[in-house]
Amino acid sequence: MNPRRRSKPIQIGRVTVGGDAPIVVQSMTKTDTRDIKSTIAQIKELEDCGGELVRVAVPDMKAAEAISPIKQGVSTPIIADIHFDYRLALMALVAGADGLRLNPGNISEPEQVTKIVQAAKERKVPIRIGVNAGSLPKSKKPKLSIAEQMVEAALEQVRLLESLDFDLIKVSLKAFDVPTTIEAYQSIARKIAYPLHIGVTEAGPPRTGIIRSTVGIGTLLYQGIGDTIRVSLTAHPREEVIAGYEILKSLNLRQHGPVLVSCPSCGRAEVDIIKLAEAVEKELLKITKPIKVAVMGCVVNGPGEAKDADIGIACGKGRAVLFKKGKKLRTIEEKDFITALMAEVERF
Amino acid sequence: MNPRRRSKPIQIGRVTVGGDAPIVVQSMTKTDTRDIKSTIAQIKELEDCGGELVRVAVPDMKAAEAISPIKQGVSTPIIADIHFDYRLALMALVAGADGLRLNPGNISEPEQVTKIVQAAKERKVPIRIGVNAGSLPKSKKPKLSIAEQMVEAALEQVRLLESLDFDLIKVSLKAFDVPTTIEAYQSIARKIAYPLHIGVTEAGPPRTGIIRSTVGIGTLLYQGIGDTIRVSLTAHPREEVIAGYEILKSLNLRQHGPVLVSCPSCGRAEVDIIKLAEAVEKELLKITKPIKVAVMGCVVNGPGEAKDADIGIACGKGRAVLFKKGKKLRTIEEKDFITALMAEVERF
Hints:
- 2 copies of one chain form a homodimer.
- The first copy, chain A, is an alpha/beta fold and 348 residues long.
- Chain A has helices at residues 36-48, 61-73, 86-94, 110-122, 146-163, 178-191, 206-222, 237-250, 273-284, 302-305, 337-347, and strands at 10-12, 15-17, 24-28, 53-57, 78-82, 99-102, 127-132, 169-174, 197-198, 228-229, 259-262, 292-296, 311-315, 319-324, 327-333.
- In chain A, the strands form 3 sheets. An 8-stranded parallel beta sheet of chain A has the order 8-7-6-5-4-3-10-9.
- In chain A, helix 1 packs across helix 2, helix 2 (61-73) packs parallel to helix 3 and helix 6 (178-191) runs parallel beside helix 7.
- Chain A is elongated, with a radius of gyration of 23 Å.
């Protein structure tokens, strides 16, 4: 696994992105931003599951103005998502946005960008240059690959911001095509030192979207690329935050609550491991400490295979071995499987 | 993306693994193998969703014998999963197993392995050397990392098989820890030319297990490593096959039915994109041809962002634009969204 790429940290409200800061998990609200009450409620749901930054759509002036009362109701820094109209960015800044996202595919006029940058600079508010493969500005080098056209679009706006003496920059280069996404990030990671927001765009509903996003984000993180992640899913944004942490946990990049180790079950199992693991998974939602819990379907293989687990259970017919760090604690009866396991989890 | 590592193809029944063959999606039954009727039924469920190889647990002689009648009822090649007792492998071969999986952590006695290899050679049945981090044989070099101990265990058995003039070999090196898994496969990929079966072990129930498996398998495939994959989930094996194809599709390594592009929805959307995408996803389960379908929440961004899609819909308030390869076909009313979209999908 590559060491993390060194990036220049930026500050989005109280959250640091880049440098040595933990890789930040972010999401985006799916409420109408002008509906202040619903938007605050959704951001609070994201805070409850660990969302660290949240972006809101700003389709009009009323949405830009809503950022001010929304900020009163939440503690998460708010990033305003701006397309087409630079004046929405100016209003979002006045309303207290902690970050801006601009799409070079639809705001590229240097005069307009300059106005945004000046207002952001006064307030020390970072700007994400958020390139999407599907809305690229017309390339000057149309023979380039899509990935390289994305990099070109980002670099052009990076240079404009730098020429205005502005360096509170973050960059994203998202495509639906995963190899294109990875290629684009690999390329820009070698060219600039700004932090990178990584993700795959329009990845779809959870069933397929999680896999598509995870291949892209996971491969990049393994290469040391990425300072903040957003898993885009056609689902409640809570699912995006949960998936984000699971990706980071699987590469040991963040801790976030328990980790459940469970065998897939097979013709050897003498209990219904699928049902048991589901029940334990549900119980673990109540636990916030980082603890590794194992549910294994085989007394012979179980404790050894899961010896890294803090607490585990290896099930035989009607009975199971409860173990701690690979060492047997005691034998328990089937009716006590969940209560005994969870009691040890609590105690750990 | 790295070109695929060149591996020496082997034949498991009618399925080729390695070489230029498509990356094979496999799974394992979770029924009691001795329950022939249930095991056949589960294998047929896997055949229906594209499972190409299936492994069955062989905990005892009765399970080994059951392979013969199971094979009568299915068309998928059957791999016998053997632990501890070499005689189970011999019986599985007699019963017609198309492949064997041995765990060097619990069958390593050269005399026993030799007996298995001789019987497999007569029948041209390949053997997977299936190393698991949790059940490693005692290492001769205990200072090695877990990943390197896994490689050492596999290589020792590879050498034994080669010394018996047997080369119908496939290797797997699975750990729960994803970086360990990746490191182990990267290392062995440089050392041998046999095909690799890749996967992450005991990854857990779908919610977290899919992510953990996808990070490991996706990262390796991106590096060109892997000839067959198994996503281990504590769930019905159908979920493993579906997830396997989604990983391969996201890296453009296999086609398998439709691909759904859908935006995550945001404060800009004027229809319930989450509900609509879920409904379209359900409709697409009936379609088997590879087609890219887009569901976008924004008339302004939608057709452009999804211009790669074969057929798509970009929704505004109460109406939507139906488009084909980025070109508008016509405007449709909300009540017709799904029927009109699916009619175009069928027609494509």
